[in-house]
Amino acid sequence: xxxxxxxIIIKGFLLAVAWHTLVRVIRHxxxxxxxxxxxxxxxxxxxxxIQPPDQMPSRHGIEPGMAVLEVGPxxxxxxxxxARRAGPAGRVAAVDIEPKxxxxxxxxAATAGIANLEARVADVYDLPFEDSAxxxxxxxxxxxxxxxxxxxxxxxxxVLKPGGILGFSELLLDPDYPPARTLLWQANEAGFSLxxxxxxxxxxxxxxxx
Length: 210
Known about the structure:
With 210 residues, the chain is α/β, with parallel strands linked by helices. It has eight helices and seven strands. β4, α7 (149-159) and β5 (160-171) form a beta-alpha-beta unit. The chain is globular and about 40 Å long. The N and C termini lie far apart (59 Å).
């Protein structure tokens, strides 16, 4: 019986690795936003254990009173925490290209009683904000879904204040997971310099400065 259970576990692990590899290959050649119906699937207990929602604002350098832009907010779980951290004197804007994702964020914010959060549909290459509008831009396992990340980072550079923070949190389980060195190279191309790196190959956060 024990041998059978071990075989099942091994087969399950191998299937998971094979599926993850296949998805990574597909996503390497075909970049597209995360579909709305997968929002709750990627917001799972394992991810929340590795990237705890209540810890992500501090990992991204968010302080009370800041103006924060989150790109690709998913179902809004992390967005709400950013807004709580920013507090009444701060504000959070969340943007996504998928209207149904934005609807989810608005619903979660309303349920949580969050008043300093604005969610809207927007093109990441042409953000509907003035120059130097934000103190920080935050992205959690999103940047590699964008076909031209350097172009997007240049737009983040535009809307950030001088000395503003660009933060990326990445997770190895994500099929779009980029190595830290790749993001660093892309960010340097867009005019950012490294401020701090935390974590390890399994999960890391990069903070960069304009």
